[in-house]
Amino acid sequence: MSSLTEDPAGLDRQNPEAEIAVRAEAYRNWGRWGEDDALGTLNFIDEAKRVEAAGLVSEGRVVSLSQSFDTDGPQKGWRRRINPVHTMTDTGTDAERGNQPFPHGIGGADDYITMPLQCSTQWDGLGHIFDHGTAWNGRRAGDVVTSDGDLVTGVEHAASVIVSRGVLLDVARHLSPETGELPDGYGITAADLDACIRAQGESSRVGRGDILLVRTGRLARARREGWNDYAGGNAAGISITAAGWLHRSEIAAIATDTWGFEVRPNEFDVPAFQPLHQIAIPNMGLTIGEMWDFDELAEACAARGRWDVLLSAPPLPITGAVGSPINPVAIF
Fold it and tell me: What is the pTM of this model?
């Protein structure tokens, strides 16, 4: 019998369908912000929250939370995801050799990039995941995302929204202080999140409108050992049993330093794939960030003894996109 247990030991590991369903129903936010809503939990960010976040800035130091966008990235072709392909269309060589049709000696360089929108640091949009053919807010998936893109909840709707108080929970540092890295397959529970908040102190409190940043240390290991299976492989991540915590905390969004946000392998003994995504995105309306870089941020936070920052992480306003590359920045 499935329940809303927050203890992974209580999961029915033979029945992901039931475990997903009970949480999807319990934590569903459909209609909470009206029938036409395109933002989901990003609605928790209001002007007052941004003023609060701006008040955290005293030094002007900026830390980028983005990985690189280049051919040396982690993608291995899963679901046709490749690393960015950067192509130059005009170069300094062209300018030197007079191959550009410009007057009075002026020359220039131009380039373009070809890449999946979710190949490096990115947001999952609300049109990215469906639950039994249903998209965010109870809409039919086929009415939302077509060959023309996401007609309802495209990431462009969030272009001026995602600026808020960011809170780093360095769960890896808290649970594995010797290494600062969690083992693959470790499911971060609600109890773990609460314990990390207590250990880090008042600046780690998490509430309405905050953007939660969870460090597992997986990216640090990839930097040391090579990408290997960083994209799509096993990793620590959020446990499906923490879905209730994510819901009641009223966070606006969450991001991790892993490819998949949730723990991998997923917490079942039968075939399952990203069950927490299925609960969080189409039912809860939660925006999810993946492959963020928290290593420098973690050092900066630990040195200051504070774990909250002004966070700016707007998506590119790509009309109808179900995800977006970003360069999120934390400002102290």
Answer: 0.96
What are the pLDDT digits (tens) for 235-265?
A: 999 999 999 999 999 999 999 999 999 999 9
The CATH number covering residue 51 comes to: 3.50.30.50
Q: Where are the alpha helices (DSSP H) in 72-175?
A: 92-96, 141-144, 171-175
Distance CA 232, CA 273 (A): 11
Burial of 76 (0-12, 13-18, 19+ CB in 10 A): middle
| pLDDT, tens only, 34-86 | 999 999 999 999 999 999 999 999 999 999 999 999 999 999 998 899 999 99
1 part of a folded domain? no
User: What span, in angstroms and rounded, lies between the C-alpha atoms of 304 and 201?
Assistant: 12
Classified as helix, coil or strand, 128 is coil
How many structural domains are present in the chain? 2
Distance CA 298, CA 121 (A): 17
Is 282 in contact with 140 (CB distance < 8 Å)? no
pLDDT tens-digit readout, 179-209: 999 999 999 999 999 999 999 999 999 999 9
| Residues of the domain holding 286 | 8-78+117-331
Tokens representing 293 are 């870089």
As a 3-state breakdown, the chain gives helix, strand, coil percent values, each rounded to 5, of: 30, 20, 50
